[in-house]
Amino acid sequence: MLSVSEPQIDEDAWSVNVRLEDASGQTVWEHVIYGIDEVQATLLGLHFAKTRLLDDGGYRFLGGTDLMLP
Fold first, then answer.
1. Which residue range is the domain that position 14 belongs to?
2. Which residues fall within 8 angstroms of residue 50, CB to CB, at 6 or more apart?
């Protein structure tokens, strides 16, 4: 399961935690993505997740290769 946390402020930057878990709930990878505001942090987090999933390959959403991420 792919998850992106709610944006949180840390000093002068906003961040989101992006995580991919396998079917058993084990973390496959996890990264913290920073932005200048909560919207940028969220969009960068989603873009990072899409890029990482496409680079890894083999992931599908509803039977297709379009991951429905911005």
1. 2-56
2. 67, 69, 70
- How many domains is the chain partitioned into structurally? 1
Judge whether 30 and 18 are in contact, CB under 8 Å. yes
Backbone angles phi, psi at 8, to 5 degrees: -130, 145
Instruction: Specify if 64 maps to a domain.
Output: no
Alpha-carbon distance of 70 to 61, in angstroms, equals 14
30 lies in a domain? yes
For 29-65, how does the pLDDT look when each residue is reduced to its tens digit (9 = 90+)? Answer: 899 999 999 999 999 998 888 888 887 776 666 666 6
Residue 68 is predicted with a pLDDT of 60
Q: Is residue 50 part of a domain?
A: yes
Give me the residue label for tokens 């959403």.
Answer: 61
